[in-house]
Amino acid sequence: MTSAQVSRDQFGRAIEYLRISVTDRCNFRCVYCMPLEGLAWLPKADILTYEEITETVRQLAPMGLKRLRITGGEPTIRPNLVQLVSMLRSVPGIEDLALSTNGVKLPEIAATLAAAGLDRVNVSADSLRPERISRIARRNLGFEPLTALRAALAAGLRPVKFNVVVMRGINDDEIGDFARLTLGHEVHVRFIELMPVGEMAGLTWAHVVPSDEVLQRASDAVGPLAPAEGPQRGNGPAKYYRASGAAGTIGVITPMSHTYCSTCNRVRLTADGRLRTCLYGDHEVNLRDPLRAGLPLAPLFAQALANKPKEHHLLQMQVGGLKALSQVGG
Ligand code: SAM
C-alpha cells in the first residue's frame, strides 16, 4: 500500500484522523469530566510505550492516516512528551500533528514541543477568571489562558484553539468575554455543548447551553457574525464565524443540538491500545496485544472500520462503558 491509500468505513467515510490518548490521568478534576477522587487508573504495564504508539502509527499511516492528535487525560503530565512528538513527526505520511491540553504546562513547554515538530495546539479554557478556573477544574494550578495563548503563538504553534465547555449558571456569562478575545487575538474560540457523560458533579441537562443561544450571545457582544472558513488546519466538527475585522474566529461544536456523525473522519487510540471507532460506543479493537505479539495491525484497522457505527446515541444517554471523556481523550 502507498501513502495515497484512503481507508473508508462501512458507510464510505474516509478515516484519516487518529486521536491518541497517552494517559488516562489528569492534573485537573473538571466538574463535567472526572470525579474528584479520580478514576481507577490503568496499570503502567497496560499503557502503550512511546515506541509502541509510534509503531502503531507507522503501520496505520499507509492506510490513509494523515492527521494525529495527542490527548489524554492530560498528555503533558506524561514524562518526556517531547520525545513522542519527535517520534510521531518522523513517521512518513503524517501531515498534521496536534496536541490537546489543559494548558497548565504550555508556557513552559510550548517552544520545546514546537521544535520537536508539533504543529498546533487546542487548549481547554472554560473561563478567563482565575478563581473560576480553579472552581471548574477543582485544582488551582495557576492556569492562565492568555499566558498559554501567547506562549503557543510565540512558539509558532498555529492555529491555537480554545475549547470552552459552556455551562449555564457556571460560565455562560463569559461567552461575550471569549467572543471579544477573538477581536484582537489570533485565537479560535470553540464553544462546546456540555455532554452528559460520566458522573458530572451534579450537572444536568439544565446546564447545557445550545449553540444557537451561544452564537446569539456572542454576537450581542461583538456584533454580527459572518460564517467563516475557520482555521486552515484541522477543521473538524466545529462551525466557524468571524466578527467584523476580528483576528480570530468563533466556533461551535454541537454534539447535543446537531449531530455531525455523517462526516466523522476519526478514530481513537486509548492509552492502553484499544482502537475506538466511536467516542460514545464500545466499538473497540484491541491493538496492543497483537502489536506486542508482533502481528500486523493493518487488517485489524480495516476490521475496525468495517464495524464503525453510523452514529452515536448520546442523546439517548447511551455512552457505553465510558465514565469520563478523560478515558478516551475527548
Ligand atoms: N486534558 C486535555 C484537555 O484539557 O484538552 C485533553 C483531554 S480532555 C478530556 C478533552 C476535551 O474534552 C476538553 O476540551 C474537555 O473540556 C472536553 N470534555 C470532557 N468532558 C466533557 C463533557 N462532559 N462535555 C463536553 N466536553 C467535555
Helix and strand arrangement:
Blueprint: E1 17-21, H1 50-60, E2 67-71, H2 81-89, E3 96-101, H3 106-116, E4 120-124, H4 130-137, H5 145-154, E5 160-166, H6 175-184, E6 188-193, H7 211-222, E7 225-228, E8 239-243, E9 249-253, E10 266-269, E11 274-276, E12 284-286, H8 288-292, H9 298-306
Parallel strand pairs: 1-2, 1-10, 2-3, 3-4, 4-5, 5-6, 6-9
Antiparallel strand pairs: 7-8, 8-9, 10-11, 11-12
Bound molecules: S-adenosylmethionine.
S-adenosylmethionine binds near residues 74, 165 and 329.
Written account of the structure:
The protein is an alpha/beta fold and 330 residues long. It contains 9 helices and 12 strands. A hairpin with a 7-residue loop joins β11 (274-276) and β12 (284-286). The relative contact order is 0.17. It binds S-adenosylmethionine. S-adenosylmethionine binds at residues 26, 32-33, 71-72, 74, 100-102, 124, 163, 165, 192, 194-195, 197, 325-326, 329-330.
Biggest sheet overview: 12 strands, mixed
How much helix is in the residues? 25-40%
Round the mean pLDDT to the nearest integer and report it: 92
Q: Number of DSSP helices? A: 9
Globally, the shape reads: globular
Order of helices and strands, N to C?
EHEHEHEHHEHEHEEEEEEHH
